[in-house]
Amino acid sequence: MNASDAQKIISIMKGNCLHAYLATSDGDQPRVRPVSPIIEDDTSIWITTFSTSGKIRQIRQNPRICLAFVEQPDGDKAATVVGEAQIVPNVKEKTRIWKLATFDLCEHFPKGPDSEEFCLLKIAIKRIEWRDSWTAKTRIYEPDRK
Questions:
Q1: How many CB atoms are located within 10 Å of the residue 83 CB?
Q2: Please, which residues have CB within 8 angstroms of residue 34's CB and are 6 or more apart in sequence?
Q3: Of 74, 65, 57, residue with least CA distance to 21
Q4: Angstrom distance (rounded) from CA 121 to CA 21
Q5: CA-CA distance, 18 to 32, in Å (whole number)?
Q6: Does residue 34 sit within a domain?
Q7: Residue 41: its pLDDT value, please?
Q8: Is residue 130 within 8 Å of residue 141, measured between CB atoms?
């Protein structure tokens, strides 16, 4: 993928992180819920949640996820991430990501990033399907496998 496309994907995800939807599996039933991912410039994707949430139980059983970012209000730009969610127990990493959030995590986790209730998910990207307009062809980005 060229640098221009990478920047477009990151821009779509960052610009729509408050309009993102995470799909997990609850047995044989898909579950979709709104989330507010934290996006880094290298395409790293992080999701904060409660350690007791249903999504954590589902991810422990089946880590495969789909995460959709949709530009509001018309859905002109969109990026859909296919991958796996990994629970990150490392307090140093949780603290680093906490500081990157563009919203106040203290509202939900008043005891901070090292509290038992705070859970951090890292999304391991397998593929991103994206478009930068309704008239553009959907393109696919697959990160290099190392």
A1: 19
A2: 19, 20, 21, 22
A3: 65
A4: 14
A5: 15
A6: yes
A7: 94
A8: yes
Distances (CA, A) of 86 to 52, 59, 104, 119, 121: 15, 8, 23, 10, 5
In a domain? residue 58: yes
DSSP string, 95-115: HHHHHH-SS-GGGT-TT-TTS
Residue 139 lies in a domain: no
Per the domain annotation, does 21 fall within a domain? yes
The C-alpha angle 96, 45, 14, rounded to 5 degrees, equals 100
Number of domains in the chain: 1
Quickly count: other Cβ atoms within 10 Å of residue 47's Cβ.
22
What CATH number should be reported for the domain holding residue 39? Answer: 2.30.110.10
List pLDDT tens digits, range 41-93.
999 999 999 999 999 999 999 999 999 999 998 889 999 999 999 999 999 99
User: Tens digit of pLDDT for each residue in 6-40?
Assistant: 899 999 999 999 889 999 999 999 999 999 999 99
Provide the domain limits for residue 32: 3-133
